[in-house]
Amino acid sequence: MTTAQPIIAVTNYSSSSPGITLTLESTGIFLGILVSASVLAGVAVTVISKMNKISNSITQIEKTLEEQARNAEKIREIDRTLALHIQEYVNRKDVVQMVLGQLNEKIDHKFKRVLFYTRDIQRFLQRDTDFKIREYEETTQQDE
């Protein structure tokens, strides 16, 4: 008896026909290249998305810094205005104190002149008449 051997595939290999012959090895290499390319594409997408996030973060930081710079300028302007108002207040206070001091000096001067004239009149009246000078005491009693 003859034993028959099974034939899996029969191909007519002809070197003169143009085309691609796929073998298990070439298919494995091709699939490996595809898997590597997809992994590289996934890494590229991840890197690009992270770079976009970083870019957005930098843009937000720039906007925040610009806003803080505007706020700092406003604070400097308010500080200058406050300093001007404080200086104006100090100047007005000094003027009021000077005017009050001058008023006080005028009142003292007028009081001394009135006192001098009053004493002069008292002396005149004592010399020429029987005028008696009474001592005046200021007593302050509170009503109970």
Description of the structure:
It is a single chain. Helix content is about 75%, strand content about 0%. The protein contains one helix and no strands. The longest helix has about 100 residues, at about 25-130.
Taking pLDDT < 50 over at least 5 consecutive residues as the criterion, the unreliable ranges are none
Rg result: 56 Å
**Share of helix, binned:** over 70%
- Shape designation: rod-shaped
Strand tally is: 0
Helix tally?
1
Strand fraction equals: under 5%
Mean pLDDT over the full residue set = 85
| Structural class estimated from helices and strands | mainly alpha
| End-to-end CA span | 155 Å
Order of helices and strands: H
Largest sheet: none
Quick structural overview:
Helices cover 73% and strands 0% of the residues. It has 144 residues and is mainly alpha-helical.
Break the fold down into its secondary structure elements and pairings.
Layout: H1 24-128
Structural features:
single chain; 144 residues
